[in-house]
Amino acid sequence: MRFTIHIMKISNTNQYSANPQHNSISFEALKFKKVNNYINIFEDFPIKLKYGNLTEDCFVRANTDTKRFYVDVENKEGRHLGISTSNTIKDKSVLYNSIIQNLHQDCNIQGVGSTMRLGQIIILLENPKINKIKLFSMGDAVFFHSKFKFKPAITDKEELTKKLEDILVHSNDERFSKNVEDVKNLLSNDNQSKKYYLKNGNEILKQYLQNVVKNNLHKDPKFKIYSGFDMELTKKDILDNQDFYNNLFNKFGIDYQINT
How distant, in Å, are the alpha carbons of 15, 60, 85, 105, 198 from that of 76? Predict the structure, then answer.
């Protein structure tokens, strides 16, 4: 498995005034540094985000201490637009995302949350011992995570059943006929182990969430999710969908590509 980076030629003459030793913003291939003798994180890099009909010059920054990783987005004045925190306290192979928060409610800057999420994915890929990202998603953020191929990872059978039963309200919607049929088949099967139920139930819920996103219904009140649940994204998921992620890196002007 190999990850390659190609130089992207973009010029920009704006200054980052928050740093007394600022330099002109220049866009080039991501660079990485080893921290604490074993963790690889990317060095700060500039990015252009949409701001209405304009673009905003921003910076993506990664930091780490002995317990946590931070991926933040700032504008060129040094104002925080988004912060995220994750850790590997419980399991060195899992990156637990505890916070990903937009801080720019007063202005219409698009892509801050997506940029932080992509930063976490890059950290996962650059550290061989980390093989998945896990998080607890609030209900109103489930579809955001689903857009990045995060999948449900519910371990409580009763909780999962309630989520599956919610899908049945769309029985008269042909777009979700397969999802509804799968739920009914699973719930009617009394001869199955808990392990089988959880595996298949989470997969059915994942397919439903992806279907909502595909049909651009994630903001429709009829599909609102009120209570959150655990979700995860594995390294295998990322590699299986490398074209999807490479397109996202290109979309946001992040010079990083996955090649396997």
Answer: 7, 11, 21, 17, 46
The token pair that represents 234 in the structure block: 């594995």
Amino acid (one-letter) located at 223: F
pLDDT at 17: 32
CA–CA gap between residue 178 and residue 39 (Å, rounded): 43
pTM of the predicted model over 0.85? no
Phi, psi of 29 (to 5 degrees): -60, 145
CA distances from 245 to 105, 119, 240 (A): 27, 12, 10
User: Helix or strand or coil: residue 113?
Assistant: helix
Structure tokens at 16: 């980052």
pLDDT in tens, 162-220: 999 999 999 999 999 999 999 999 999 988 999 999 999 999 999 999 999 999 999 99
**What DSSP string runs through 215-237?**
TT-TTSGGG---S-EEEEEEHHH
**Across 151-168, average pLDDT:** 97
Residues 6+ apart with CB under 8 A from 239: 1, 258, 260
